[in-house]
Design a protein that fits this description.
Oligomer: single chain
Order of helices and strands: HHHHHHHHHH
Shape: globular
CATH topology: Heme Oxygenase, Chain A
Strand content: under 5%
Bound molecules: protoporphyrin IX containing FE
Distance between the termini: 65 Å
Length: about 250
């Protein structure tokens, strides 16, 4: 076989995914069995039994905004994370609009200061970025991907019970500007507007996640085994701090 044939063969064999492999497995294990079928933790009160008020939801959104804003600032200010900019997963602008929506809906509400869970997680993120990209990327993965999975299920329920079904922008993803995310352009919906995805359509978010998964896998190719392990071992912290934000709703 010629060298080019061997090369073509090698290219066909996709490298095993780090993110969809050990990183995702580490996260799934930390779910309770009733949260996800791969979960291994003892049951807790399921989120379908949570009954927070509107002010609790507001606090959750304010804390979430602080955390996403911090993540997004880290991505924008760190050269090694340049590939992740403009991914379409960014939530800061959406949360800004949602906080304003809640204020208009109930004028007796006010915007509270960021709560302890939000401040604690934002501080942790900055210190994890100092520890290195692999450790930081665990938080990036868990925060954005959890939000698209369990976070989205919880959010839909909150929007149904507290907002009469008005789905907040936090839970809706739009195709980013195709000039900044050309790799995702084949996911662009045609014939009807691609934005919103407010009716349970997962295709926009699935496309965005697929693009980001690929980018993280490409980053991880340059990590040593030790760095990969450090990334995986950070998962309990992501659950402790990310799960901590849910304490605003778990009442
Ligand atoms: C995935 C539920 C909390 C991280 C999922 C999935 C469900 C779920 C149903 C999809 C499973 C599948 O693909 O088969 C929940 C519920 C939660 C919760 C109900 C809390 C009440 C968390 C927390 C984190 C987290 C606190 C981490 C901070 C993840 C990750 C995935 C996931 C990383 C994989 C997403 C992907 O790779 O696409 N969760 N989860 N989850 N969850 Fe959670």
């Amino acid at each position: 076989a010629s060298a080019t044939e061997a090369e073509a063969k090698r290219e066909k064999r996709a490298p095993p995914s780090f993110i969809n492999g050990p990183l995702r497995r580490a996260a799934m294990k930390l779910h309770t069995r009733d949260q996800a079928k791969e979960g291994e933790q003892p049951a807790q009160t399921p989120f379908t039994k949570w009954a927070p008020g509107l002010a609790d939801f507001m606090q959750f959104l304010v804390d979430s905004k602080h955390v996403f804003e911090t993540l997004e600032r880290c991505v924008n200010e760190t050269a090694e994370l340049k590939a992740l900019r403009g991914s379409g997963l960014e939530r800061t602008a959406a949360l800004d609009r949602d906080v304003r929506y809640l204020l208009e809906l109930d004028p007796s509400l006010s915007v509270p200061p960021v709560g302890q869970p939000g401040r604690a997680y934002a501080e942790l993120l900055l210190s994890k970025l100092d520890e290195g990209i692999p450790v930081f990327m665990n938080h990036y993965y868990n925060t954005y991907f959890a939000h698209s999975a369990g976070g989205r299920m919880i959010g839909r329920r909150m929007c149904d019970t507290l907002l009469g079904g008005h789905l907040l922008h936090f839970y809706r993803w739009e195709q980013p500007d195709t000039h900044t995310a050309t790799e995702n352009h084949h996911h662009h919906e045609q014939g009807h507007h691609a934005s919103g995805s407010g009716s349970g359509d997962r295709s926009v978010i699935e496309g965005l996640l697929a693009g980001v998964r690929e980018k993280i896998d490409r980053m991880a190719l340059s990590w040593t085994e030790e760095e990969k392990q450090k990334c995986i071992d950070e998962t309990p912290n992501a659950f402790r701090y990310g799960g901590g934000l849910l304490s605003h709703l778990a009442k």
